[in-house]
Amino acid sequence: MVDAASPSPALDHPILDMTATAIEITRQLCDIESVSGNETTIADAIVAALSDSAHLQVTRDGDAIVARTNLGRDKRVVIAGHIDTVPLNNNLPSRFEMIDGVEYLWGRGTVDMKAGVAVQLKLASELIEPTFDITWIWYDHEEVSENLNGLGRLSRQHPELLVGDFAILGEPTNSIIEGGCNGNARVEVRTSGVRAHSARSWVGHNAIHDLTPILQTLAAYQPRTVNVDGLEYREGLNAVGISGGIAGNVIPDTAMVHINYRFAPSRSGVEAITHLRELFEGYDLTVVDLAEGARPGLNAPLALDLIRAVGGEPQPKYGWTDVARFSALGIPAVNYGPGDPLKAHADDERVATDQITACEHGLRAWLTTN
Amino acid sequence: MVDAASPSPALDHPILDMTATAIEITRQLCDIESVSGNETTIADAIVAALSDSAHLQVTRDGDAIVARTNLGRDKRVVIAGHIDTVPLNNNLPSRFEMIDGVEYLWGRGTVDMKAGVAVQLKLASELIEPTFDITWIWYDHEEVSENLNGLGRLSRQHPELLVGDFAILGEPTNSIIEGGCNGNARVEVRTSGVRAHSARSWVGHNAIHDLTPILQTLAAYQPRTVNVDGLEYREGLNAVGISGGIAGNVIPDTAMVHINYRFAPSRSGVEAITHLRELFEGYDLTVVDLAEGARPGLNAPLALDLIRAVGGEPQPKYGWTDVARFSALGIPAVNYGPGDPLKAHADDERVATDQITACEHGLRAWLTTN
């Protein structure tokens, strides 16, 4: 971690124009290729773009950047976004296009999530005296293995930088507030039998046949819908893999169902695994992945102000996102950013430019009220 | 196909001593390595060993050899064995060893099935005036892909050579008659759904969950035991494979159970598939393998004579063997040969030498009665 308030003298990065619109800044950010692991150039450009912002204390940790106001406000909000993208597929440089009368910016990263980062950068640069103190965070390695995640690294090594009363993650939500996120568990449930030649199957014991009660439980399961802080979280319990079999003439002695459980944020990870162990009692169960959910915290005063400022009806977030890292630190957090999440990672990734403007207006209204 | 009554003048093969015991001839045959596809040397040696047998008309087709008596007897029996083995695993040359007071010949091919071939060769050479006309067949490529099988090739290209009233296949049966064989079918039963992100599983349709009724049918299935010509054939219906799944966060849109059905020889292959289609009605079912069974024909007069001559209680054969090829030609057939079938293909493949002698005595008695 280095203090990076002063830009490096050698200018070996593209220049971001902070006086341009958020739409234009989005285009500039997209055209700096920054597939996970290759974020240094875009991080350099962001640090340089903030070098004239005397109201911000800028700290850099690897390719993560933290920019804080220190105005002595009662409340501090954290607003974060990742600067990496998934790999390209001939979808850079970005370009503007019109479809059915709607203007889009097309290209890798437009949705996930450089439009969100552009709005944040624009506001970070311009809001010299916001209503709350703000901690802006732009981080690396979100699209790859969890242990590389830049926000995770900051939360482990510098948790003091993430402290705040409320957090917003700028992931694409069509510029509608999506609160918290479901938790996510994956387990493998195994059966075992006795191998035998299938011509004399009665000598063996078929482990695949023993999967039957497991599949019956899954097929009959009625997932809950749980109201958490005013949002309805739909759960899901699904086989996402099944395997077994040695050869066409062998009774298999082992078989496995790979199960994914998405659970409402009112349930802890431990409670989720306990539920699975009860459902599949008596079976060999191995936990292969477990991520806590995040409560939306939409009943907090700051959240209610945000909802009023940006408009629209808040929705629950079903997929797991980095808001759970804030939740783990005791900070209520929501997702709010431009772009259709169904276009994230798509080859025809594109963001409606009016969503970029809407998101900027929403955040600006909230951060400058009172 | 060439007439091979005269041996080739160049002697480039090991010499088999037809005056030795069947045990010693087994050893000599085993020490001629003849993994499937490499049977020419052993076939040459067999043709040469029969060259002095004026009572036999010897025909060669590739590495398959047919040696027939033509004595004008009322009945003709076919006695066959394959001359290839599965690959070696440091188990040649063969050797004699004693275990718990029992003498064994150890090595690749001792059980499957050069002991049977040795007994057949010894008797072919010595029985100048057997009770029945005999067609001796030694064939190649039994241990590999069905379409290479030497007996199958003969039955397609020269069915007249296989004509007879009864057939014996010398596969290892512990020198006890095993009648006919079960049929063998394999099918793949598939389900299809709608792919979706597992965070929003209700948008998709889980094909793995749809396997549940298929597994229920398999787990609840009560296989029949069917008396065919006096032998009790146990059937079996088993999943031998199961698969499905795309990734840990995806609702799978396709899944499959691979099912193996072993059916009594009173049921035809078509009837077997009809039964499976009824069991799994409404599912996408693909037949991947189908082999007819073979009735034992133990109520035929020739069979009753054989049972009396060799002694012991005839048993049903559960695994599929080449007897089904005779059955397909309308010829009742049994398995009868020295060696424990559980030792076939094993790294410690070994035959109890007294079983070789017992098999020779049994066949000799049958072929020389009256």
Question: How would you summarize what this structure contains?
Answer:
With 370 residues, chain A is α+β, with helices and mostly antiparallel strands.
Describe this protein's structure:
Two copies of one chain form a homodimer. Chain A is α+β, with helices and mostly antiparallel strands. The first copy, chain A, is built from nine helices and 20 strands. The first copy, chain A, has helices at residues 22-30, 40-49, 110-126, 150-157, 212-220, 269-279, 301-310, 323-328, 353-368; strands spanning 2-3, 57-61, 64-68, 76-82, 95-99, 102-106, 133-139, 166-169, 178-179, 183-192, 196-197, 225-228, 231-234, 236-244, 250-251, 254-263, 284-291, 315-316, 333-335, 350-352. Chain A has a nine-stranded mixed sheet with strand order 1-2-3-7-4-8-19-9-18, with helices on both faces. In chain A, strands 14-16-10-17 form a four-stranded antiparallel sheet, with helices on one face. The longest helix of chain A is centred in the first third of the chain and has 17 residues, at 110-126. Mean pLDDT of chain A is 93; it is low at 5-9. The interface between A and B is large, with 47 and 47 residues.
Write the layout of secondary structure elements.
The structure is a homodimer of 370-residue chains.
Chain A lengths: L1 E2 L18 H9 L9 H10 L7 E5 L2 E5 L7 E7 L12 E5 L2 E5 L3 H17 L6 E7 L10 H8 L8 E4 L8 E2 L3 E10 L3 E2 L14 H9 L4 E4 L2 E4 L1 E9 L5 E2 L2 E10 L5 H11 L4 E8 L9 H10 L4 E2 L6 H6 L4 E3 L14 E3 H16 L2
Parallel strand pairs in A: 4-7, 4-8, 8-19, 9-18
Antiparallel strand pairs in A: 1-2, 2-3, 3-7, 5-6, 6-20, 9-19, 10-16, 10-17, 11-15, 12-13, 14-16
